[in-house]
Amino acid sequence: MHADIVFTGGTVRTGDTDAGCHEALAVTDGRISALGPQALALRGPRTAVVDLEGGALLPAFGDGHVHPVLGGLGLRGVPVRECASVEEIVDAVRHWAEAHPEAEWITGDGFDPWLAPDGLFDARWLDAAVPDRPVLLRTSDHHTAWVNGEALRRAGYTAATADPTGGRIVRRDGSDQPLGTLREFGALNPVLSLVPAPSHAEHVDALREAAARFAAAGVTWVQDALVTPDLADVWITAATTAPGLPVRADLCFLLEPDGWRERIERFTADRERIESAAPGLLSARSVKFFADGVIEAGTAALLEPYADCPHSHGMATWAPAELAEAVVAVDALGFRPHVHAIGDGAVRSALDAVEKADRANGARDRRPVIAHAELIDPVDLPRFKALGVIANLQPLWAQCDPLMTRLILPRIGTERGRRQYQIGSLLASGARVAFGSDWPVTAHEPLRGIATAVTRQTPEGTPEGGWLPEERIHTATALAAYSAGCAHQAFEEKDWGALRPGMRADLVHLAADPVTTAPAELAHLPVLGTWLAGRRTHEAGISTPSRAARG
Fold first, then answer.
1. How many CA atoms lie within 13 A of 526 on its CB side?
2. What pLDDT digit, counting tens, does each position of 164-208 carry?
3. What's the alpha-carbon Rg for the chain, to the nearest Å?
4. How many CA atoms lie within 13 A of 441 on its CB side?
């Protein structure tokens, strides 16, 4: 029997440290059928031969924590992501508003939260550009919004408005008047709810655009880390109507403290609906919890007070006891908890909740996830391995950039600052680590995250030797965190994440072997091709579909 595809002319890296490299790989019926000389022997008259052109073939990447629909929608609106100052943002808002007089709301996504002193943005700056229509801009971390006076008025935010549960309305110095900066979803949601929602078709279009970008980056599986019922329907439509999707996904149902007991009653039915609609392409095995906010906004939950705000430990989204009760409940239904935890207080609450689920529901291979784990108390680091918790980390965050120097380090001080993003320490402890991008918070390309994990440097190459260099990891280890680590998180390590006969042919073709590429060059290594179960989903030189191209 001849193979459908044979890859040759480069290095085939299996992802297995004991298997080394091979000269060729064969694919038959969407699965790997042979390696090395055995693969070459399967060439026949109808076999498609792919020349690796001296590059490398590797297991395709996963993304263990990402927001595809949100990222796709964020490509619309005011282009503020690349703005380098408050003035540039205001100019971009002005120009976009002038070009779109029909828009009821002016929205944008992804600007840097350090562009204003202390991360505090004034509504009056936006009022100077657009005084008569509401403006809503979200920072790259999505935990802060900058709004103008009209948006505050429509939301009913005045000096008499108390901070909502789970949110903070930042006030002007010396008064109770809202400044124009809103922290966390309790404060953001009343404003977001006023913005005209995109249609179902627009959501599907945004997801398709996001999925094409993942394929172009070598990604074949994603964990959508925040799914509401309407977004589940978006995934189902995109997966079951032409042209389909170039990625598979596990959907993570959002669970918030308010009314959570009633909400989980529908999760099992929703899971069955999703998985029966697109078997093999969509699963729904996880439930998302926000344990806290982010350090740069002063809303991450810390064990000790903030250095710049001694009366504050941050903002725990869930009371620890109730978080544990909810985790036990979803675990009993067979769902895997996926907990956003940034501060060391939130990480401890999440670990405690997993431990209680283990005691209440019995030991099993549950693979809970703590996402981000930016700051871990030394007492808690070994608990990841002990409890079987996967640390889903965002390697692009492990650099000393302006976010770190201007907002994070002043808030937590030197000692805690040296305990951030302990990728190397977690791996050395024996904990499972998987990588994710958290796109649109940061870039979705795995190679950019891999470069940062290896160097612990900014794109400009600073600092020399890397930030917290003891936490650097090897290129092969970083590649595995984006492939085998994500496959383990997906409960699918027997099916993908490595290149062995019988496994699904989820593959990525890179222009050079990343293991022998200089670390500083990894971020710019071209992705020449991506295959999902032997089906090509990306070919270099063919552009990602645009909204205009698809109408």
1. 11
2. 988 999 999 878 999 999 998 899 999 999 999 999 999 999 999
3. 23
4. 19
| Among the listed residues 373, 361, 316, the one whose alpha carbon sits nearest the alpha carbon of residue 335 | 361
Beta-bridged to residue 504, according to DSSP, are: 31
Token reading at 379 = 């007492």
- Which H or E run includes 10? strand 5-13
* CA gap 289, 225 in Å, rounded: 9
Distance CA 7, CA 40 (A): 8
* Residue 111 Cα to chain centre, angstroms: 17
pTM of the full structure: 0.92
Is the dihedral angle over the CA atoms 232, 234, 235, 237 positive or is it negative?
Answer: positive
Taking alpha carbons only, the member of 43, 46, 60, 61 closest to residue 7 is 43
Amino acid at 196: P
CA distance 508 to 531: 6
Query: Which residues share a beta bridge with 145?
Result: 138, 182
Going from the C-alpha of 281 to that of each of 27, 162, 221, 502, the distances in angstroms are 20, 45, 9, 18
Structure-token pair, residue 213: 């970008």
The burial of 163, by beta-carbon neighbours within 10 Å (0-12 exposed, 13-18 middle, 19 or more buried), is given as: middle
Residue type, 491: F
Closest CA to 306 of 318, 322, 294: 294
